[in-house]
Amino acid sequence: MKVNVQAVNFNVDRKLVDFLNIRLEKLQQFYDKIVGIDVSLRTENTSDKENKSVDIIVRIPGDDLVVKKTAKTFEEAADLGADALERLLVKRKEKIKAH
Questions:
Q1: What predicted TM-score, i.e. pTM, was given to this entire model?
Q2: Distance between CA atoms of 79 and 42, rounded to whole angstroms?
Q3: Cβ neighbours for 77, distance < 8 A, ≥ 6 positions apart
Q4: pLDDT, tens digit, 9 for 90 and up, residues 29-82
Q5: Do 65 and 57 touch, CB atoms closer than 8 A?
Q6: What structural domains and CATH numbers belong to the chain?
């Protein structure tokens, strides 16, 4: 499984890329047919403190799961997104087992 990280209008720190890779690799244990993951990082142009936005697209056969989260830091937003994806992947796996 490959994790592609793309930062919009800024250079991403190596520590952040490593954090994203480690956190998103854990999704493999919830659903083993993940083809790849695309992550897009962007800073929203607002005066709000929660302006770090993370879009995560998980590519699985037959469908793509998309999660968008905004928080104070990219790490927090990625963590929230990964938690949501864990729930979605578990639901998907249970749905497939039911058929």
A1: 0.90
A2: 15
A3: 52, 53, 54, 69, 70, 71
A4: 998 889 999 999 999 887 778 899 999 999 998 889 999 999 999 999 999 999
A5: yes
A6: 2-98 (3.30.160.100)
